[in-house]
Amino acid sequence: MLKKLLLSILLTHTFLMAQSTSQLLNQRKVTALVYSTFIPGAGQFYLGHKIKGMFFTLATFGSLVTTIVSQNNLVGGNERLENLELQYLNTMNWERADQLWQEMLQVKADIDKDYKRRNLFLGVTVGIWVINIIDVLFFTSDKGSGDIFGVLPKVQISGANERFMITAKFGLYK
């Protein structure tokens, strides 16, 4: 409850601070904010900070993939535990029952690890997303409009004697 309250105060303060500064929310910053809201790092990339944008995107999606894999392992572990419980209840052999019990303990330990890992990386994902939005609002300057990919293609089409040649040159600039 306290975490939710602190997070709502932080977000409210962030948005009030953003609205109070007219220079802070120009049209490109608003567009960058919308981009970063849906794809973390896209706003930084849009404003010209490509490496920072790639970092936010890769960090967010990397932690999100870890969260999804942990959730999948958690579901699989629960199914395995249920299956072992049924086998344990239906066994008549003491040695087999002891073996199943040991397997159940190991699966339960794995489930607990996956539960903690899932919650940790879910928190990391949300944290990176929130930091990404705060960064695009306050700490990412606008490098100006232009080609967001930093590439100016030059296409030349030439033809001679029924042969056509198309060449493209890409010049990278800062």
TrEMBL record:
Origin superkingdom: Bacteria
Residues making up the signal peptide according to the UniProt record: 1-18
Every DUF5683 domain range: 30-136
Pfam name, any one: DUF5683
Membrane-spanning segments: 120-139
InterPro entries in UniProt: DUF5683
UniProt keyword terms in alphabetical order: Membrane, Signal, Transmembrane, Transmembrane helix
Identification of the protein by name: TM2 domain
